[in-house]
């Protein structure tokens, strides 16, 4: 519902993904199956390649950060080779889950849970 401040109902100003990426249904009975939904944040060249800064993704139970990275590369062809390299998270990519670097967790095998926020950062340069 609009707040009266020039907002449009249901419009976030961000590019939306196809419903197939955001919705998984339980194969039996047709009801909604509870699956982990994570928020993904993309920065710098990753944002430019995907055309969106944030999105929400429903994942299968037990999905890892590597599974998510592969899904993102599949859905956004310009990201291919940026997030995953040789079946692992690229050494160039920095990935944080709820603000914690995956290097201090279980790296690309870190399982994702409902409500997690996953941020992908490209390498930074400068001085």
Can you tell me the number of structural domains?
Answer: 1
Query: Total helix count?
Result: 3
Q: Label the structural class.
A: alpha+beta
Basic shape:
globular
Radius of gyration: 16 Å
Strand order of the largest sheet: 2-1-7-5-6
How would you describe the overall organization of this protein?
- It comes from Pyrodictium delaneyi.
- It holds the Pfam family ThiS.
- This is Molybdopterin synthase sulfur carrier subunit.
- InterPro entries: Beta-grasp_dom_sf, MoaD_arc-typ, Mopterin_synth/thiamin_S_b, SAMP1_3, Sulfur_Carrier/Prot_Modifier, ThiS/MoaD-like.
- The structure is a single chain.
- The protein is α+β, with helices and mostly antiparallel strands.
- It has a single domain, classed as Beta-grasp domain (Ubiquitin-like (UB roll)), CATH 3.10.20.30.
- The protein is 17% helix and 20% strand.
- It has three helices and seven strands.
- The chain has a five-stranded mixed beta sheet. Strands 3-4 form a two-stranded antiparallel sheet.
- It starts with 18 loop residues before the first helix and ends in a 6-residue tail after the last strand.
- Mean pLDDT is 81; it is low at 1-20 and 23-31.
């Amino acid at each position: 519902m609009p707040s009266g401040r020039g907002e449009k109902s249901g419009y976030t100003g961000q590019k939306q993904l196809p419903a197939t990426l955001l919705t998984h249904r339980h194969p039996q009975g047709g009801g909604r199956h509870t699956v982990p939904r994570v928020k993904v944040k993309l920065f710098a060249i990753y944002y430019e390649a995907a055309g969106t800064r944030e999105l929400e993704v429903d994942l299968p139970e037990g999905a890892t950060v590597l599974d998510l990275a592969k899904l993102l590369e599949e859905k956004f062809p310009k990201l291919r080779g940026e997030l995953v390299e040789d079946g692992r998270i690229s050494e160039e990519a920095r990935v944080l889950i709820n603000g914690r670097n995956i290097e201090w967790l279980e790296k690309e095998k870190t399982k994702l849970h409902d409500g997690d926020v996953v941020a992908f950062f490209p390498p930074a340069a400068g001085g």
